[in-house]
Structures are given as C-alpha cells and as structure tokens.
Amino acid sequence: MDKIRYKMKLAYDGTNFSGFQVQPNKRTVQGEIEKALSKMSKEEFIRIKGAGRTDAGVHARGQIIHFDYPRYIPEDGMLRALNALGPEDIVFLESDIVDHTFHSQYLAKGKMYHYRVDNHSLKDPFTRFYAHHHPFDIDLKRTQKALAFLEGTHDFTSFASAHSDKEDKTRTIYEASVAIDEKTEEWIFTFRGNGFLYNMIRIIMGTILQVADGRRPVEDIKKILEAKDRTTAGPTVEAKGLCMMEVYYDEDAFK
Amino acid sequence: MDKIRYKMKLAYDGTNFSGFQVQPNKRTVQGEIEKALSKMSKEEFIRIKGAGRTDAGVHARGQIIHFDYPRYIPEDGMLRALNALGPEDIVFLESDIVDHTFHSQYLAKGKMYHYRVDNHSLKDPFTRFYAHHHPFDIDLKRTQKALAFLEGTHDFTSFASAHSDKEDKTRTIYEASVAIDEKTEEWIFTFRGNGFLYNMIRIIMGTILQVADGRRPVEDIKKILEAKDRTTAGPTVEAKGLCMMEVYYDEDAFK
C-alpha cells in the first residue's frame, strides 16, 4: 500500500531542546517527534523532515514538517495522536495530507521570524527563556533606519556564521521591521525573507542593537553588508529571543 | 546600630518552586531569598516575611516582603544586590526603606490576583506553566453573572480548602471580573479583595468554569455561598494559572 504524506504545522518551546535536528543522546524536536511516531507505527521508523533547523533555545510557532506514514489516518486523527503522544513542549497545530511532491524544506519559498527584545531595566522572570534582555536606551528611529538597509537582495556574508556551508550567500529580505508591543513594551523584530543563513538573524540582531543603543552609526549596516566579512558585524545574540513564526510555500504570498 | 527595615516588591515564576514558604529540602521562594541575603550579610541569618504564601506553581508579579538588615544599604543597592545574588526566576522590582512598624503581612489591607485561562482547543507550549487550559465552549455572559454573585461581603466557607485554619471565613471581594486579552485571546480573571482563604481563588475558578461551560446553572454560585459547605463547590483548579498581582497597604486605594 502507498504511504501517506503528512504536512504538519507545529509550535515548540525551544528551551529544553538541543535544537531541532536529531543528535545522539540529545533531546531534540525531531527526535521527540520521531519517537512519538514510532509509538504509533509499531512496524517501522519514520523519518521526519523540517522546513528549517532551529538551534538550541530557538522557538517556533509555525515550523512545518512532513513525513510518510505507512497507512491512512484522518488528518484530525494524526493531529490528536501526535499531540497525545508527543511531549508537552511541542504542540501540533495543523495537519494536512499532501501530495508526494510536497517537501517541507525544498519547497519553502520563504520564512518569517520574530526576535523579541526586553528593553526594561529589570529582567522579567516570565520571559527569561523567550526574550533577549537589553537594558540600555535604544532609539526607535535609529533602529528603523538600520533595519531598512537590510531590506532587498544582498550578499549576507558579513551576517553569516563562519560555519555556514552555503556557497551563495545572497538572500532577499522583504521585511526587516520592529514594533513595540503596547502591553508588554517588548520590541518585536520581524524578519521575512526568501531564506536565512546560519545564525544570520542573531548576528543581524547583535549588530542592530549596537546601532540602536548608539555604539555604532546607522550607516555601519550598509558598510558591513559591503565588506562581506563576518568580523565587521556585531556579536551573535542569544538564541532564546528567536522564534520561527511562519514558512511560506506560495511564492507570492509573503513578498 | 539599629537594623534597617526593607520593603521589597518582587516577581517570580512559581514553576520551579515548592511554593513561597520555606520547607526543609525544598526549593522555595523564601528559602532562595534568605539564601541570597545570607550571602550578603556574612554575620547573621535574616528572616524574611511575605505578604502572602503562594502555593507551589503559583506565580507573582507583585509579592511584597520585608526584612531587617543589619546595616544601611541604599534602596537601589539592595535591589541590585538581591537581583545579582538571587536566582533567575525571582526578580526584585522595588526596594524601600520603611519604618519598623511596617509589616508586609499584618498591614496588608487587600490583594489582587489574576487567574489565566487558555480557552483554545489546542494547548500552547509557551503558556503551559502560566495558564489553565480549558478547551470547552465558555460563555462570557454566564461567566460574568456568576462572578457578580461573589462580589461583596460573604462567608466563603464553601470556597475554602478543608485545610483552611482561619476561624472567620468572611471576606469582602471588591472585584471579581473577567477580560479577554485581545492579542492572546486568553481569559484573564481578576479577583480583588480584603483577603483570600486557602485555595479560595482556585476553588472559585473550578466552580466558575463549571458555570461558564454550562455544567452548572449560574444561580449555583449563590446557593453554594449560602450552603457554607466545601463539598457543594467545584474542584480546586491548577495552581499554575494563578498570579499574585498586587498587595494593597492603603485601605482606600483598592476598593
């Protein structure tokens, strides 16, 4: 019998995971999902594939995975089963049976991430795993001007980890913006683009915060892009502020 | 030299504490604060007193404590020192040097608590320690009518734990209300009163939710109050939805 391909959307609290990708003797998102699936399907191991590999501590509200299941289960039933068998820090939000041509990673046309910054002088015990604490005066106008330099198609070599194995470091960022949450006063940064290099958003954030609090001139962002040299950019900030919000499969939906 | 009395406001994530009150071999809020104070003052053990004892899993954004410190430290210095020496899940928000007549517990005239209910059908991994998940249809009008019965001065025997050691179970509730958060769609219940019996809000919530989702008629709340019998009320719901928001020392400020 033909296997059935499932596409699922999930949220997870990345705090207690050593990232998405399976690793020996580590608790990972992929590992926990494959464990839950193997409880369901006694016959065989089922490999899952994610749209993107999030690092240790990085969260998700819209990660997409796909896998081939040996027999038919209604979409709702798959959702319920995985929510029942999976751990508490992973929640499956949507389940769809898709064509065998669907691939969560290769067909992804773009992604949207949030990075949360807590700018209060004191820490907040409730966001200690979910926001980066930056208790220095930051300027909204400067921050917005700096972000604007990032929008468009650029070679992001300067903002990629030296460990990035991608040859072509050209990516298009459709949106690099910030909004201050009215209630929590958190600074929520949004990055929407056709792809992001390893650590790219965390290095961008480390650099943007240096501009935001006045340690660097706004124009540095332009110069850093042109330098194509990782050492010209700022530090890689904490993983915990980062959350994968959405994966886009429709070319035109997110531009 | 005279000791200096400090009044401090603090927030804590109750998840990893066995409640506020010190207990042998348990990690408690009081225990951790006294440990931090003893790091500061090598000479002597310093006992702290809290406005209210929160149970295991209960959170706080406005708990008040007081203690006598053997020597003068500026208010700001005390705040910085305790934030530096205390654990990550406790944050000290305000520090005041007060008169020796001040007492965090005995002088408290009232308190305000929130109880958070997540009414979505699916759980949210990010609020799993902070909101009670109640994935059943609940009706706002019914809930508000039920809450209205609780406002005023009543004997709350029916809504007190059988372990409550208070003789007089009459309390005044100035506000029992609910608001739906626009962004998260969480139901945030507010209880403001001159005092709350042991488990009182959690038993009220267990009963209110039975009214809210139609398992009980609205008028039951009135009947349960009149019965003065714990067995007539609903179950004690989870601690994790509860958060101590504010302690009032000014008689007129909160009515």
From TrEMBL, chains A, B:
One of its GO terms (molecular function) is RNA binding. Keywords: Isomerase, tRNA processing. The active site is at D55 (nucleophile). Substrate binds at Y113. It catalyses: uridine(38/39/40) in tRNA = pseudouridine(38/39/40) in tRNA. Residues 11-106, 149-250 form the Pseudouridine synthase I TruA alpha/beta domain. GO terms for biological process: tRNA pseudouridine synthesis. SUPFAM superfamilies: Pseudouridine synthase (SSF55120). Its EC number is 5.4.99.12. CDD domains: PseudoU_synth_EcTruA. Formation of pseudouridine at positions 38, 39 and 40 in the anticodon stem and loop of transfer RNAs. Belongs to the tRNA pseudouridine synthase TruA family. Homodimer. PANTHER family: PSEUDOURIDYLATE SYNTHASE, TRNA PSEUDOURIDINE SYNTHASE-LIKE 1. This is tRNA pseudouridine synthase A. It comes from Marinilactibacillus piezotolerans. The lineage of its organism: Bacteria, Bacillati, Bacillota, Bacilli, Lactobacillales. The gene is truA.
